[in-house]
Amino acid sequence: MPARAARLSPGRAPHADGGEVGANGLLPLAPASRQGLFPTSPGPGPSGLREVGMKRVLAFLSVLLALALAFPLTVTDDLGRTVTLKAPPKRIVTMLPSVTETVCALGACDRIVATDDYSDWPESVKRLTKAGGLYNPNPELIVSLKPDLVLVSKYGKLYETLERAGLTVYAVRTETYEDIFKTVRALGRLLGLSSEAERLVAQIQKEVYGEEARAAKAKGRPRVYYEIDPTPYTVGPESFIGVLIAKARGVNIVPKELGLFPKISPEFVLEKNPEVIVATYPGALETIRKRPGWDRIAAVRQGRICVYTGGEDSLLSRPGPRVAQGLRLLVDCFHKP
To answer: InterPro entries attached here (predicted)?
Structure first.
């Protein structure tokens, strides 16, 4: 499998994390005053200030009580393994870019002590220790950091090595659109941030709805082919990218029977004759134009090929809190004037 595909998912169709299915920042949570934790204005005098102080103390104590009741916590990860946390984790290693972004979007970026090589958002995580990738993890480094939680991909065997070393490991698989919200809630529970997770879910859904509403104004629904790498690997309609294609009012040429991230033949694409092609790897434009017979494909003839690399690829390829920004790229691509 080419280098691009190897970064995506082992022994199967590529998956966004790990390079993942491989900007305007993460979606911020509302400030505390808007969440109802603190009053928006002080009281009228000393008694009002005392009341404000008491409310803050009570709010803080209620949070502590909720955490005390939530832990020890026993959950089941995406491998079906039972994972137990005695207390909210304070030292976390994230080995998937989308997981890194989700932990930060939950307000727990300061708990991360290391990430995989590809995590690069938000900007602050670039300075963190890097512990390898899906195929070249550095378990010795991870163990030396003494994390109380390591978040890994369900693919690969890193979890086995770390578990033998006595670390607490939670395996994640985020491949469908609904998996995005399932993962947000799971991580929120693990971190003792369930309320923040619900707010983040609502925020992501609101952003996605805004892009869907924009797409709904378009008159047509073009046939779309999405190419992850030149193998070529693509996306099925039930993958998270496939759902984004539908929300952007595109029609995926790949049938669901082929799976979430299938490998296909160039002849299949030629037969389906897509009106728009989206590709997410360097040099894609030249690769696509040079394929035998592809000059007869409508998208190639009309120049409707959208290539996204670097930061834009991350928006499309990572099933995390910035997914609405990836959807925005697709809406713009499918419905250019």
So the answer is: ABC_Transporter_SBP, ABC_transptr_periplasmic_BD, Vit_B12_bind_prot
Q: What is the pLDDT of residues 88-139, one digit of tens each?
A: 999 999 999 999 999 999 999 999 999 999 999 999 999 999 999 999 999 9
Long-range contacts of 194-200 (CB under 8 A, 24+ apart): 194/70, 196/29, 196/106, 196/107, 197/106, 199/29, 199/30, 199/35, 200/27, 200/29, 200/102, 200/105, 200/106, 200/321
Comparing 65 with 116, which gets the higher pLDDT? 116
Using DSSP bridges, classify how beta strands 82-85 and 276-279 pair: parallel, antiparallel or unpaired: unpaired
The answer to whether the CB of 211 falls within 8 A of the CB of 324 is: yes
Which secondary-structure segment (H or E) carries 172?
Answer: strand 169-172
Kindly list the structural domains of the chain, giving each domain's residue range(s) and its CATH number in brackets, ordered by start. Answer: 70-192 (3.40.50.1980), 219-334 (3.40.50.1980)
Comparing CA positions, the residue from 102, 97, 135 lying closest to residue 115 is 97
Could you tell me if 56 and 43 are in contact, meaning their C-beta atoms sit under 8 angstroms apart? no
Residue that is written with structure tokens 């030149």 in the block: 230
Q: Please report the DSSP string for 267-332 in residue order.
A: HHHHHH--SEEEE-STTHHHHHHHSTTGGGSHHHHTT-EEE--THHHHHHH--STTHHHHHHHHHH
Q: Which amino acid is at 33?
A: S
Residue type, 276: V
Q: Which of 275, 272, 211 is closest to 247 using CA atoms?
A: 211
316's tokens: 């499309």
310, 281 contact by CB (below 8 A): no
pLDDT digits 0-9 by tens, 226-281: 999 999 999 999 999 999 999 999 999 999 999 999 999 999 999 999 999 999 99
Residue 203 main-chain phi, psi, to 5 deg: -70, -45
